[in-house]
Amino acid sequence: MLFAALITWSLGAVDPAAAVLVGRRTSLSAADAQVLSQTISTHLVSAKVPIKLDADAARSSLARLGLKDASACNGRKACVKELGRQLAAAFVISLSLSEVGRDRSIALELLRVEDGVVLETEALILAPGATVTADQLASFSTRVLTQFGLGDRPVVEAPPPVKVPEPVVRAEPPPVIIAPLPPPPPKSHVSSFVLGGAGVVALGVATGLLVSGLNGRAEAYRTAEVDGVQRSPYAASEVQRRAAAGGVQLGIAGGLAAAGLALGTAAVITW
């Protein structure tokens, strides 16, 4: 009892009253956040919580001091503590307001400005279109009054604050732009012309050799009638030579013809 009385006396010495600040705002407009924070301030005042500056008054005071909006602290305790010091408030009730989908999430923290210790916390989820009620804040208000020495329970330190999950915004991947491929270069037909020309030349030469070889063999075996008997005008060795020469020409002609046909086929394939 003596310990509680001493704490009550020390709290009274530092003016146990709080300033209400929006310490964090996520996916919620500044106007909506101010309306919601002022509604919370009104409920706290109705519950007899000593409020030095409600949300509207705290916002105006910060503006007059040329300080940034409290939501720029983004929930950082040191930043909220410094704003409370600038407002000459012994305590700050810091609000974290966020909108996840269609639901609204509210986190309240009672922070002692002297040392930045969080004494009480509360977390609420509002359904779409709903507003915060005094009943939802009743438990938090009672615990704040106890911390201020105005309640029936002894003063206790609050557990670590509950972290309210922030909405995860997934960035859309950048569109994949596929550059059109350049048209293929026009195909060259030079090789086809060369192969075709070589094939024609080979066939021409082969034709000449064929005619020459046939004529040579025909001449080798030519006979004439002498004294009523068909005789060759050439000696036997000459006949063999002429026949052999004609055979060689016919063989070369066949090879060149085959080569000419092959070159022509290659020219068609490579066209």
Overview in brief:
With 271 residues, the protein is of the alpha/beta class. The chain has 2 domains: 2-147, Rossmann fold, CATH 3.40.50; 190-269, no CATH class.
Total helical segments: 7
Number of strands: 7
CATH topology of the largest domain: Rossmann fold
Order of helices and strands: HEHEHHEEEHHEEH
- CATH superfamily membership of the largest domain, which one? ABC-type transport auxiliary lipoprotein component
Overall form? rod-shaped
* Total number of domains: 2
Q: Characterize the largest beta sheet: strand count, sense, and whether it forms a barrel.
A: 5 strands, mixed
Rg is: 54 Å
Task: Assign a percent range to the helix content.
Answer: 40-55%
Strand order of the largest sheet: 2-1-3-4-5
Mean pLDDT: 84
Q: Supply the helix-strand structural class.
A: alpha/beta
What ranges have pLDDT less than 50 throughout 5 or more consecutive residues? 1-13
* Level-2 CATH architecture of the largest domain: 3-Layer(aba) Sandwich
What would CATH call the class of the largest domain?
Alpha Beta
Strand proportion, as a percent range, falls in: 15-25%
Task: Describe the protein in words.
- There is one protein chain.
- This protein has two domains: 2-147, Rossmann fold; 190-269, no CATH class.
- It contains seven helices and seven strands.
- The protein has helices spanning 2-13, 30-46, 55-64, 77-86, 134-147, 190-220, 236-269; strands at residues 18-26, 51-53, 91-100, 103-112, 118-126, 224-226, 229-231.
- The strands form two sheets. The protein has a five-stranded mixed beta sheet with strand order 2-1-3-4-5, with helices on both faces.
- It is rod-shaped, with a radius of gyration of 54 Å.
